[in-house]
């Protein structure tokens, strides 16, 4: 047999390379491990920032608890009792060690464990954030897709104008406007206050609608803009041109092929917005008098309640880090090229 017809011999890899490939972590595991390590580092830096910012505020808990007419002995005793007499680095390490054990300290004003205060208020904040996310997706995704389908037409111009208005208006301004509007149109509607779902489901839903709209409508403007831009890119792809050329209508091609391929950036934005909504709830909860984490954060800072304020800031940052990780877990399912699935 001639050399031209001989099959090429398989390439023999060195033993070191074969061993390295055998024990190398899967690409997806490496991708997620890097994200998890980054999240831990962010949380550590956030703990330093939270502790430092709270202690940089003028005054402290001793000033408010002791009062203006207290004796130096009383103030010194309160300082020792609250653990504020040592160096800041020592206070930080002591606080961080307790946090790693799940102990966030005792609120100096409520006399309750901070963990209990957060557990009582966190469900209200999460309920508001989830409802606002549903509102933002419910109007942002379809309006963005339809605006891309009708590019340059009247609906597209109306949708873009609405997104500009939503992006330019702060969420607390939407909240105040909705309170005033509901008070004039439906005076019997509960515009302020809160009722837990377990206590009164009907009242809970009524009290949730206005703050969810106030928080979800402005943030849905970002989703609408991303959805429109992503769909316009999808319409330029060859598979969409092929689908349209084979007789599919623009709506059919959008539903069958366009939405999934355009949803990658939207999923990322929606996940990050859910995390951001927990932080922006500070404004909405104070407008609508909702007893959530946002209201607890503001109250703790004003009262110089170090333990509660530090825990709330750390929690808000932790939610953002966790949502980033969830988005990283979900995104490879939409785009398998991410994380080495392909």
Automatic annotation (TrEMBL):
GO biological process: transmembrane transport
Pfam families: BPD_transp_1, BPD_transp_1_N
Keyword Metal-binding among record annotations: no
Organism encoding this protein: Actinomadura chibensis
SUPFAM superfamilies to which the protein is assigned, alphabetical: MetI-like (SSF161098)
Domain ABC transmembrane type-1 residues, every copy: 122-331
Subcellular location, record wording: Cell membrane
Membrane topology: Multi-pass membrane protein
Protein name (record): ABC transporter permease
PROSITE patterns for this protein: ABC_TM1 (PS50928)
GO CC, one annotated term: plasma membrane
CDD domains: TM_PBP2
Listed InterPro entries: BPD_transp_1_N, MetI-like, MetI-like_sf
Keywords: Cell membrane, Membrane, Transmembrane, Transmembrane helix, Transport
Keyword Zinc: no
Top-level lineage group: Bacteria
């Amino acid at each position: 047999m001639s050399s031209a017809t001989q099959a090429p011999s398989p390439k023999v890899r060195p033993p070191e390379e074969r061993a390295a490939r055998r024990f190398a972590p899967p690409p997806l595991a490496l991708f997620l491990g890097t994200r998890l390590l980054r999240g831990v580092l962010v949380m550590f830096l956030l703990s330093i920032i939270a502790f430092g910012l709270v202690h940089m505020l003028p005054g402290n808990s001793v000033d408010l608890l002791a009062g203006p007419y207290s004796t130096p002995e009383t103030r010194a005793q309160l300082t020792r009792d609250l653990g504020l007499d040592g160096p800041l680095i020592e206070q930080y390490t002591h606080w961080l060690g307790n946090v790693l054990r799940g102990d966030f300290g005792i609120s100096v004003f409520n006399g309750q464990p901070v963990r209990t205060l957060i557990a009582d208020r966190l469900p209200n904040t999460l309920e508001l954030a989830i409802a606002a996310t549903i509102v933002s997706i419910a109007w942002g995704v379809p309006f963005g897709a339809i605006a891309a389908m009708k590019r340059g037409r009247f609906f597209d111009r109306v949708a873009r104008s609405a997104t500009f208005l939503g992006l330019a208006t702060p969420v607390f301004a939407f909240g105040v406007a909705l309170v005033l509007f509901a008070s004039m149109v439906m005076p019997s509607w509960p515009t302020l206050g809160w009722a837990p779902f377990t206590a009164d489901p009907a009242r809970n839903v009524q009290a949730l609608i206005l703050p969810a709209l106030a928080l979800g409508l402005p943030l849905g403007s970002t989703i609408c803009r991303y959805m429109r831009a992503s769909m316009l890119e999808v319409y330029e792809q060859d598979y969409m041109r092929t689908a349209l050329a084979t007789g599919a209508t623009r709506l059919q091609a959008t539903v069958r092929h366009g939405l999934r391929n355009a949803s990658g950036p939207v999923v990322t934005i929606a996940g990050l917005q859910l995390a951001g909504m927990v932080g922006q709830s500070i404004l909405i909860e104070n407008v609508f008098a909702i007893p959530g984490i946002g209201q607890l954060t503001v109250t703790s800072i004003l009262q110089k309640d170090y333990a509660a304020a530090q825990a709330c800031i750390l929690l808000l940052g932790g939610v953002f880090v966790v949502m980033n990780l969830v988005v990283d877990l979900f995104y490879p399912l939409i785009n398998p090229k991410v994380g080495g699935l392909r």
